[in-house]
Amino acid sequence: MESLAVVLLAVFAGGYLVLAGADIGVGMLLPWLGRDQRERRVVIASFAPFFLGNEVWLVASAGLVAGAFPGLEHRLLEELYPVAVVLLVGWVVRDMGLWLRGRVDAAGWRSVCDGAVVAGSWALGLAWASLLGSVLGGGGLNAGSVLGLPLVVLFAWHGAGFARLRLAGELAARTERGRGRYGVSALVLVVALVVAGSRLPWSEVVAEGGGLSLTAVAAVVLLPLLAASQALVWRTFWGRVDSPSYL
Amino acid sequence: MDPLVLARMQFALTAGSHFLFVALTLGLATLVALMQTRATLSGSAVHARMTRFWGQLYVVNYAVGIVTGLVMEFQFGLNWAGMSRMTGGVFGAPLALETIGAFFVESTFLGLWIFGWDRLNRWVHLALIWVVTLTAYLSAYFVLVANGWLQRPVGYEMRDGAARLTDAGALLGNPTAVLAFGHVLFGGLLTAGFFMAGVSGYHLLRRTAEVEFFRRSMRIGLVTVIASVMPVVIVGGMQYQYLQPTKTGGGDAAAAVARFTARFGPDDYMPPGMAGVGEAVMEGLWSLMLLLAVVALVKVWWGRWLVRGRVFHVVMVCAVPLPYVAMLAGWVFREVGRQPWMVYGVLKTRDALSPGVGSGTIAVSFGVFTALFAVLVAVNAWLLARFARRGPDGAALGAAPPVAPSAPAVSASF
């Protein structure tokens, strides 16, 4: 049951890094990909229909950790408190920038929201890089949490690869310079996650008793349904975008 | 400052601001789903416009609900490590079920609903809002299972200083969770009913040209208020039989205090006075809402009566905050009333705090998140008011995206 839960967590966390990693990367590259406010709105439209369905992978990972590995949550978060706060604040600021940008038609409002999206995406990317680095370095705040920071370019590269597939015309031509390959960067992110995950002491943090089984069984049973709902999103919105969306 | 006080205040502010948005989300999603059903079945144009207008307000409200919820979920790991260490094996399970079995689907399908307007078959689009609504309720249920277990821990055993789940049925069927869910369900409908009636009252008061639109909206709002005002108090009252002895007071309380003192040493086991204040405020505001529901019951039969009556419109606008304040007061009664316990009779709040985190760290994170949430709540209250004021023509949801400038204008900007 413990190994099953580890595999499930890898699936959910991997899903988050690959799917949301792309929209974090596009957010980081927003100033370069979109040179005026209209262009930036189109760049945001490249991931707009997906971003709600992307971040749920992390929320589900956090839920899986709470249910199956309650010791891991405090081991990771408590020791990396400053990193976790940056991660959360970046996430909230970025989401609010995205949600609010299209709601008020004023240049100043859109500039503030664009700034929130870019700053939030960088904060989120750097926090993940630091977190991966510190796990690779043996856990806790260590040299790895600083040395890991350059991993943030992985997200930008991944975002460039995603934008290359989604944008059209002039904007698509601009993404070519990022030399992104969505499939390759996705693979690199998953490898980084698996290597980091193999360094965690799973059996020390696993839940005892029925809580673990309840969580793992529910996740296994629901996974096909969740995958189908995500596939529906991709099927509905896949294609190149050249006009703004609701965000 | 004492890290315990800071961590508790941070949780109260996060959960409180989260719940303000959750309550409206639950109720309004239901009403929007009903309006869209009517619009899809009958092809009625006014109901299609109502779906877009009220759906727009629902989406603006939902966005803040999400981000405050995220911070709440991660706060357990940040500030309350002592709780996950001792009771995480039980308490974590409903949180896992909530994220994987409810929130994941709710959020994915909401994205489809928002961005899939006019792209998807109308029956598929209608099915989406119903899935979103039902998973929103499922989500609320699982969160209340987690909270209900803190109020009345069941279905577990202690082994080697940690709680293990022995009976999932007892955990999921805990009456403090199931009844609280019913209470929240009707509370959410009451909130949405007053919200719709208040916004409609504002437009009718201003002699809007959209008379039919807001007369129908006012009617839906009032019927919702009338239908939920009694159930909310009945389910609420049913919870009293499961109240902790220290909260009810009297002889049971003295016995419980003696028992706790024998097992855990002397402490102040009676809940702070603030819990009783919360209870009184909740009950007082409910009486006021009942009075308004009676007035609504007279008004709702005649369409003309809903359009006229300026005093009535002003009163409905002023009544919008009533369910919000009542619900926050209810949470104060429930949560403050559990003190000094985190998990009643098992783990004290003081021992649930993360041991390694100093008061400086908590103070910084408290300051950052409080400032962030204050901005979020203010901006979103302003946006809700703005969209509500603009009326049905201001809704961007489901509208065609703004017309793109012609191609030469774009290339000229390079």
TrEMBL record, chain B:
Pfam family, one: Cyt_bd_oxida_I
Superkingdom, natural source: Bacteria
Membrane topology: Multi-pass membrane protein
Subcellular location: Cell membrane
UniProt keyword Transmembrane helix, yes or no: yes
Swiss-Prot/TrEMBL keywords: Cell membrane, Electron transport, Heme, Iron, Membrane, Metal-binding, Transmembrane, Transmembrane helix, Transport
Parts of the chain that traverse the membrane: 12-34, 55-78, 90-115, 127-150, 177-199, 220-240, 284-302, 314-333, 362-385
PANTHER family (alphabetical): CYTOCHROME BD UBIQUINOL OXIDASE SUBUNIT 1 (PTHR30365:SF15), CYTOCHROME D UBIQUINOL OXIDASE (PTHR30365)
Family: Belongs to the cytochrome ubiquinol oxidase subunit 1 family.
Protein's UniProt name: Cytochrome ubiquinol oxidase subunit I
Lineage of producing organism: Bacteria, Bacillati, Actinomycetota, Actinomycetes, Streptosporangiales
